[in-house]
Structures are given as C-alpha cells and as structure tokens.
Design a protein that fits this description.
With 473 residues, this protein is α/β, with parallel strands linked by helices. 36% of the residues lie in helices and 16% in strands. The protein is built from 16 helices and 16 strands. The strands form 4 sheets. The protein has a 6-stranded parallel sheet. Strands 3-1-6-7-8 form a 5-stranded parallel sheet, with helices on both faces. Helix 10 packs across helix 12.
Length: 473
C-alpha cells in the first residue's frame, strides 16, 4: 500500500498580490519525485483562483495571469501604521478546511513557503492542519524556511524543517518517519534525472512553467539565489523540448513562463538550441520571462531566435545606469550592453515598447537621482520601466548594508521587509517620494507606448535635475 502525502501551497497575506505566472514549482517537482518513489500524493493550492469560487468571476489580465480572490483581514499590530488594507489572497478558509477534512488519512503534510514577509499565510495553514489533521507530522520547506529557519521554527513550529532543494531531503525524511526502507533507490545524479513537475495536480491551469536550469553562477549583492538553490546546473536541451511537447499535448496551453535565473548562460549550447528546436516543432506557444534576462548576452542571433519562437513577455535585468553601483553589486549588464540588446531585439522585429527592463529602487545608500537617471535611460530607449523596490533579504550583502547603515535592525520582523512598504522604514517623507517616482515612471511608460520620448534629446544629467526639482516641490 502506498503512503499518502499531502502537499500545501499556502495563502498570501499582503497588501496586494497578483498571479504573475506564480506556481509552487519546487513543491510540484517534489510531488512528481515522490510519485516515482511509490508515494500517493495529494495537493491543496490555497492560491487556486477557481476552487470554491464558482459564483465569482475569475478576472484575467492576459496570458493566463490574473487576480486572486481577495478577502480583507485584520492587520497585524506591527503593520498598523500602514494606510492600506491587508488581505488574504486565495481560497476562503472554509474551502481550505473542507479540503483538509477530505485528507484525514494522509501520513505527512508538506508545506512550502515563498516570500519571507508572507509567513503569516504559512502560519495559518499549519495552525489549521494541527486543528483538523491532529497528529500528522508537518514538514516545512521553501524560500522562507531556507532563509529564516530559526524564525520559521519559532513562528510556524513545524515538526520538521527542510532547508534548500527539497526532493532528496524530503524523501529521506519520509522514509525515516514512515519506516519505508527499500533495498536500492536510484537517486538523481543530474537535473535531467528528475521527473517533470506534477502539473496535473493544478486545478484548471492557465499557463505552465519551464525550468531549464537551477541556480545562478553570479553573486548579485541583493539576491539570495545561492542560499536557496543548488549549484548552477543546466539541463539537456533535448529533454527540455520533450517537456514542452509533453505539457503542450497534455494541457493544450500556449503560455509557458521560464523560471530560470540565468537563462542565457552558455547561450550557444543552451537557449539558442532550445529556441531553434521549438521553432522546428512549430508549437503555437507564447514564451514569457518574468525573471530578468541578461541583456549583455543578447546578440542578433539570439534576438532573431527569440522573435521567431514567439517570446511575448520579455523583461531585461538593467537595475541601474550607475557604473559604480553596477560594479559593486556584480551586475550582469552595462549601459552599452543594454543599448545593443534593444537594438538587436528591435532589429529582429520586436517593438521597443514590447520590452521591459527592471530598475532597482531603494537600495541602501542609493540616491534618488540614480533611480531617476536609470528610469530616464531606459525610457530614452523606448523600453517600458518596471520599478523593482528593494526588499532586504536575510543573508545577502544588501541586507547587511541596510543593517550597518541603521535602516533596519538585524532581527527585523520579515513583515516589515515587504517591498511595497519598506520605504516607510525611513519615514513618511521617503515613502511619499517613492510614490512620486512611481507616478513619474508610470507617466513615462504611457508616453513610451505612444512613442513619445520626451527626454531623448536632453542629457540625463539635465533631465534628472529638472525632475528632482519637480518631485521636491
């Protein structure tokens, strides 16, 4: 008889949340891995946009992205000063409890976790598991558990906690808990030995996720990738194409989002080959890159392949136009590389306004002038700006710098590191200033869509001076 394991993707507790190709990929990999080792796996997705809401109209933006069901809840005291409504995103508690009750015969519960400042959703899930499935061991893993294991043990109180990549660790723990010992188990020796994610567990999928590699070879000062993932390793392009074909045939979905942090590394042997093979297969796909792409890697050949393979959402990691800042934080792009990437992409057939670039805002000791200059630099290329507000991630260089500069304390409650409210750490004045920058960015994006680049013929230094004068009025 197979052992029965329940996997749970918790709610988001936040001021805002949106399904932007958001799926618990690590948990779905674990699900398929456990199936291979003779476990019966069940799944509750608290962020299921459909479950229990037949009477509610699910709102979509495009390409499968959309809004979660939102329910206003009481704010934690520590967030009482924030002039925004706090909400639980996902299915109602009644629906979740009903699903929990239907799994009373499971022998272990695996709960994942994402952003550190979303831990309240994890906490509530575990509380309800204790109440309705008493005695069943709870195993916590994921990003929050890996970055803040001591905080998670104190606040969530799981029976067991897994740090880092989970497949093999979870398997070994379950074997121990359930006295499930086989004479011989073939464990994966490379990425392609892992089975595809168990997307069949998702209720009404609207898009799918593709991971062509794990980890990242870079050491950006604001990123925690090396703390939560295995060493950088890429899959064989042939197995990636097989996965594309398998999922397309199984689900008949066109939208696939790359989850890679370093999709363009070894491009001639990796992404170029993948795109060439996708073009040969003539699958009617739309490809999306919510994670920033390395602009310096984009040349005429790669841009041509991206256009022919129907890259639809294309976001570039730009971060800042300040060379000193870029060197300091180990950035993967230069101003010249960004200009060349946009030239290659538009020459291949993309419109500049179809492209987006991430610009960082709120780094420790980062001037407002630097942020404005970076926004203007990207806008002058006709590219949409996506502001990425800094969130201090424990274990990163920028977190330590925020502590050293007195912006935060070392044991700051993760709820206060939420990037949407973090500017308030430095006072209302800074928060208001950041809101003005966001409005400025929105206005420039709207004009760029109409091909109106109002600062293109003015030096960035002059533009920054004029903009700073306006936002300080």
């Amino acid at each position: 008889m197979k052992n029965k394991i329940l996997l749970i993707n918790p709610w988001i507790y936040d001021f805002s949340a949106f399904d932007l190709w958001s799926k618990p990929l690590g948990l779905l990999y674990i699900a398929s891995f456990l199936r291979e080792h003779n476990f019966d796996v069940f799944f509750i997705d608290c962020l299921d946009k459909y479950s229990g809401h037949d009477s509610l109209k699910v709102k979509f933006k495009k390409y499968g992205t959309g809004h979660f069901h939102r329910e206003i809840i009481e704010k934690p005291k520590i967030l009482g000063h924030i002039p925004k409504s706090f909400a639980r995103y996902g299915m109602t508690e009644d629906v979740f409890i009903a699903q929990l009750k239907s799994h009373k015969n499971v022998q272990a519960i695996l709960v994942t976790s994402l952003m550190t400042y979303w831990y309240l959703g994890v906490k509530r899930v575990v509380e309800l598991c204790r109440q309705y499935l008493p005695g069943v061991p709870v195993i916590l893993g994921g990003i929050y558990a890996s970055l803040l294991p001591d905080h998670a043990r104190k606040e969530i109180k799981p029976d067991y906690l897994i740090e880092g990549p989970g497949e093999i660790k979870v398997l070994n723990l379950l074997k121990h808990l359930l006295n499930k010992y086989e004479n011989s188990i073939d464990l994966p020796k490379q990425l392609d030995d892992y089975p595809c994610p168990a997307f069949d567990l998702i209720n009404h999928p609207d898009y799918l996720i593709i991971l062509t590699a794990r980890g990242c070879p870079y050491n950006c000062t604001f990123c925690a990738q090396k703390l939560i993932s295995m060493p950088f390793s890429q899959r064989n392009p042939d197995t990636i194409i097989e996965e594309f074909e398998l999922h397309y045939q199984s689900f008949k979905l066109r939208d696939f989002a790359f989850y890679d942090d370093a999709l363009f590394i070894n491009k001639s042997r990796h992404i170029n080959v993948i795109l060439e093979k996708l073009i040969e297969k003539q699958l009617p796909l739309r490809l999306h890159s919510p994670n920033g792409l390395f602009a310096n890697a984009i040349d005429a050949e790669l841009a041509r392949l991206m256009f022919r393979a129907n890259f639809t959402t294309l976001r570039l990691s730009f971060e800042t136009f300040n060379n000193e800042r870029r060197k300091d934080m180990f950035s993967k792009v230069s101003n010249e590389g960004m200009i060349n990437a946009v030239y290659c992409l538009t020459s291949a057939g993309f419109n500049a306004s179809d492209l987006e670039a991430y610009v960082l805002m709120g780094l420790p000791n980062q001037s407002i002038e630097e942020v404005i200059g970076s926004i203007v630099f990207v806008n002058n290329l006709g590219v949409m700006v996506r502001l990425a507000s800094f969130s201090p991630i424990p274990g990163t260089v920028e977190f330590d710098r925020a502590v050293e500069s007195g912006i935060i304390c070392k044991d700051i409650d993760p709820l206060l590191t939420n990037n949407s409210i973090f500017p308030l750490t430095e006072g209302d004045k800074k928060f208001v200033l950041f809101q003005k920058i966001k409005s400025f960015c929105t206005a420039l994006n709207k004009m760029a869509e109409e091909n109106k680049l109002i600062y293109k013929d003015t030096s960035i230094e002059t533009t920054v001076t004029n903009v700073m004068r306006k936002i300080n009025e």
